[in-house]
Every structure is written in C-alpha cells, then in structure tokens.
Design a protein that fits this description.
The chain is an alpha/beta fold. The protein has five helices and five strands, in the order E-H-E-H-E-H-E-H-E-H. It has helices at about 35-45, 55-65, 80-90, 110-120, 130-140, and strands spanning about 25-30, 50-55, 70-75, 100-105, 120-125. It has a five-stranded parallel β-sheet with strand order 2-1-3-4-5, sandwiched between helices. It starts with about 25 loop residues before the first strand and ends in a 5-residue tail after the last helix.
C-alpha cells in the first residue's frame, strides 16, 4: 500500500521547547554517515527533532510519510541525488512549500544554479561551518535571531 503525502502521519518523537512549543522537525538526506551524524548532533543540541535518510529515494519516502519543516540535502548520492529529490518534492503540493537547504562540496556556479532550479532555498558548501549552518537552519525554520 502506498501512502500519499496528504496521508502522512505525524512523527512520533517531536521535540518541544521549555514553554511546550513544538520545535521544527528536520530531515537530513546525505549518503555520508559522518556528515549525517555531525549535522544531526548540531541540530539536536539546538533542540530540533531530526530524521535521517541515506539517499533521495529514502528521503522522499520519509517526506511522504512524516511531516518536516526543513530538508537538509546533499547533492551527490546513489539511487536518487539531491537535485532529483528536490525536484520530486516540489511536484507534491503539500511538500513544495517546505524549505530546503542543499549542501555539497560542489562550488561551481552551475552546481549552485542547478540546486536553486531544483528547488533549493539556500546553498551551503562543505565542510559545513557549524555557526553558519545553525544560523541558516534557524532562518529557514523561522527561529528569531538572538
């Protein structure tokens, strides 16, 4: 049985702030374990709920079954790369408004332009600077600047 994006169920373990408000849920889509762990650790320390996927296909499946407020996506992955993942996400009416940060070692203008054409809202180059990464995530999820 295939679930449509409109039939998604809420994720079971959403984080909350000290005042009980729900924190943003973020999906990290990257085939490199160390990058996923690094980004996940940064986000969890900042109070975000995090899920991980090892490629765009797995990420798309999660996006269709759970609600996320942000996608953090690598470009170069097996099965479905980041460009294809974002292009597919943007085809689904209830997913297309979810912001996406694309990150990659690719720094060419063509790569960055293709990321935005695929549906990225922001582009970061690896290695990821933790301060810039968290500032970008906060911006994309509507967290006020200190």
């Amino acid at each position: 049985m295939t679930m449509t994006a409109t039939e998604r169920v809420p994720a079971e373990a959403n984080s909350t702030t000290s005042d009980g408000a729900q924190k943003a849920r973020i999906l990290i889509v990257d085939d490199t374990l160390t990058v996923r762990l690094y980004c996940s650790q940064l986000l969890k320390r900042a109070g975000y709920a995090v899920s991980e996927a090892i490629n765009g296909l797995e990420g798309l499946e999660q996006a269709l079954h759970q609600r996320f407020e942000l996608f953090v996506v690598d470009i170069n992955m097996q099965k479905m790369d980041g460009y294809a993942f974002l292009a597919e996400v943007r085809r689904h009416a209830d997913l297309r408004t979810i912001p996406a940060v694309m990150m990659s070692t690719e720094q060419g203008r063509e790569d960055i332009a293709r990321a935005y054409q695929s549906g990225a809202n922001f582009y970061l180059t690896k290695p990821i600077d933790p301060t810039r990464f968290l500032a970008t995530v906060n911006l994309m999820t509507g967290v006020p600047c200190p």
